[in-house]
Amino acid sequence: MKTGVSRRNVLGKLGAAFAGIMTATAAKTAKAAVQKVFVSSGAPKGYDPTKHKWLMAIDINKCIGCGLCVEACKKENNVPEGPFFRTWIERYVIPKPKPGSFTTRTEAIVDSPNGGMHGFPEPPVPVGEIEQSFFVPKLCNLCEHSPCVQVCPVGATFDTPDGAVLIDPNYCIGCGFCIQACPYGCRFLNPVTKTAEKCTLCYHRITRGLKPACVEVCPSEARIFGDLKNPVPDDPIKKFYENNRVQVLKPHLGTEPRVSYAGMDKEVR
Predict the structure, then answer these.
(1) What residue ranges define each of the domains in the chain, with the CATH number in brackets?
(2) Tens digits of residue pLDDT in 49-63
(3) What count of other Cβ atoms lies within 10 Å of the Cβ of residue 31?
(4) Are 230 and 52 in contact, with CB atoms under 8 Å apart?
(5) Which residues 6+ apart lie within 8 Å of 131 measured at CB?
(6) How many other C-beta atoms lie within 10 A of the C-beta of residue 47?
(7) Helix (H) or strand (E) holding 27
(8) Helices (H) and strands (E) in the chain, counts
(9) 3-class SS letters over 92-120
(10) Phi, psi of 14 (to 5 degrees)
(11) Global confidence as pTM
């Protein structure tokens, strides 16, 4: 997705950051503070993150590309209008090989108009020429080894014990390092707050016993969410892992994403 941050902007902001915005001592102090206290996590008082382990899963075979999840996310999290999304849907259309060609599979055509928020128009090729098509919801991958956490110079991006990766806007300096480091294109610079933003699993909701907004509105139950440390009867997450061949995006990067997919074609990237 569009991040709104160029390498030139990143370098300019970093120069300002390290030239005068803060000293190394201040940065170190800020990072320590964020790591110890969820200053702006949105969790209620008394919430213990060590007693939970949140997990998101996506069943591609069930996604119908309706875009309700994208719209719900925008409204729930006050995501700015325009090309800014905490979650979005991509459509993959694989045309049939041309008659007489020696290839058995053509390259996928991928689109995501307005993040898929209002559904999708007619496919880019005639229906009769389509070999396969499917929709893939995307969001923060909640990496076990998050590149965004590693590069943040002030610790504004941090891991939580319950499996989330959060951004504290009180510490974020808008340098864009995390946006450039994310290999999944899941972050953007909020044009209003000038701070980095991404999916938080609706942390303000899940820490109060609610589901993420995208999971709540999904009509086909393509998004599955649960707490590994507190399973429920007929737990959907447990069933998902028992009944599917589970994969993650870009496993070769070693980030160990905690967002899992079922039914993922090799064309998905």
Answers:
(1) 1-83+136-263 (3.30.70.20)
(2) 999 999 999 999 999
(3) 17
(4) yes
(5) 94, 95, 96, 97, 105, 106
(6) 16
(7) helix 24-36
(8) 8, 11
(9) EEEECCCCCCCCCCCCCEEECHHHHCCCC
(10) -65, -40
(11) 0.83
